[in-house]
Each structure stands twice: as C-alpha cells, then as structure tokens.
Design a protein that fits this description.
The chain is an all-alpha fold and 262 residues long. 63% of the residues lie in helices and 0% in strands. It is globular and about 50 Å long.
Length: 262
C-alpha cells in the first residue's frame, strides 16, 4: 500500500509545478531555492523547465505523504516557485514551433493567462492537423479556466473538420478536460451539446491498429463513448432539461458499440 500511495501522481495542477523547492533545501519554512539564473530564464528551453518543474514533485509528495507539509502548503510553495521561474520568460524569445511546449509549462503552473498567449500562438501556427487539434483542445481548457466557456466551445468545434486520422484526441480531450473545466459556469447545456457532438468524432476516428497508440485508442474508445453519453445525460438532467436528457438517452441506446479487433 505504501508503494501505491507513493506513486500516486499529483493532480495535474501540481504535477509539474514543482522544481527546486526541493525538500532538503527548506520547503518546510517556505524558503524556495532558485536553481536557474533568473537573468537567463527567458532563454530556458521548455524541456528544461518541464524537467525542473517535474523534478521536485516526487519529493514534495513524499513530504505530503509523511505529513511534514500539507497539500495546500505544497501548492503554495510550488506556485511561488513557478512565479519566480517563469516571470522572466519572454514571448518574443520563443520560436513558434515551441509555443505549445511553453503553453504546457504555464498550464501545469496554472498560470492560465500566460498559457493562453502561447497556445494561441501555437494554434495560429500549427504545422499539421495533429498539432491543431491538440493545441486547440489545450487552449479550450485554458479558456474554460478563464471562464470564457463560449470561446472554448467554438475552439473544440473548430477541430471537427480535421481528417479522420487526426480526430483521436477530440472526444477524450472534451470529456476529460474541457467539460470538467467548464461545468458550473453558466453554459452547461451548451457544453453537454458539445460533448454529445464530440462522440461521433471518436466513432469516425481512423488509427493505425498496429501502433501502440492506435491499439490503445481502439481498446478505450467504447469506454470513453459510454462515459460521454452518461455525462451528457447527467449534464442535461442537472441543467433541468429533461427533454434533452431523454433525447440523449434515446440516442445513446441507439449507439452501436464498436467491436474492436486489436
């Protein structure tokens, strides 16, 4: 049981917020060491930032697990460090090809406004449909965090026109990230309709069944589709739209589960 608990991941907001708030250096008293030259942080590569931020997550979790600090304290230390680490990052120094990677760093640091800047650059300069879909979904999540749910919904819908070979992330990203981030902000009916419309995107997806990613998608597709229908019905019900909930239930019943051969 101890091993299972030790390897439980931080929530997404904590997973890579860490860095040199390393426990031996005095996290308990709120002192956060700075492992990088703050004058050069604008040139830091996203891989370095991600590595630094992820590097202390295990150490911090160990301290939380031992009861030396609380989850709230860990979040505060990590957020403070992330602010110091990322404040020097200059948009003009970032190649557009790496904008999505910096967006990921800010997203995991829960610095939504800065993440939005980089994801908008990434979407605008997406080199292919795969990047367009993934970066649009990430940007939609950030917009939900910033309480701009209508814009997030438009972003997700903008991915529906990609070829079937690029559709794999759409339902999963909508179900697991965008919808949870947007619920309860006055647009739940529209979000439920978005999720319902995202289900066919998964059904239309074409993957390589011989690749590991393709096999994983095929094995999980029916599960995600089923959960999406359940979520749609529940959201309509919670929004006091029994008419839409009933229609969604009927549509779910007519939905034929995929029988995947992988």
């Amino acid at each position: 049981m101890r091993n299972l608990r030790r390897h439980r991941a931080f929530p997404l907001g904590l997973l890579m917020l860490a860095s040199a708030c390393l426990v031996a250096a005095g996290c308990g008293n709120g002192s956060i060491p700075d492992p990088n030259d703050p004058n050069d942080v604008g040139n830091a590569q996203p891989e370095v930032l991600k590595s630094d931020l992820k590097g202390a997550s295990d150490s911090l979790y160990e301290r939380v697990y031992k009861g030396e600090i609380t989850d709230d304290q860990a979040q505060n230390y990590l957020a403070d460090y992330a602010d110091r680490l990322l404040n020097g990052l200059k948009v003009e120094k970032v190649p557009v090809s790496k904008a999505w990677e910096y967006g990921d760093v800010f997203r995991t640091a829960r610095r939504w406004k800065q993440a939005k800047v980089f994801y908008e650059i990434a979407v605008k300069n997406a080199k292919d449909d795969d990047r367009k879909v993934n970066d649009s979904l990430r940007l939609a999540l950030v917009d939900c965090k910033l309480d701009d749910v209508p814009t997030a919904i438009k972003l997700v819908r903008s991915t529906f026109n990609v070829p079937p070979t690029a559709k794999a992330p759409i339902l999963i990203g909508t179900l697991l990230e965008v919808v949870p981030a947007g619920r309860g902000k006055g647009h739940d009916v529209e979000l439920a309709q978005l999720l319902q419309d995202a289900i066919p995107q998964a059904e239309q997806t074409v993957v390589d069944p011989h690749s590991e990613a393709g096999r994983s998608f095929l094995l999980a597709r029916s599960h995600h589709v089923g959960n999406a229908w359940l979520t749609v019905v529940q959201m309509f019900t919670d929004a006091h739209r029994p008419d839409l909930a009933a229609k969604a239930s009927e549509a779910a019943a007519r939905s034929v589960p995929h029988r995947e051969n992988v």
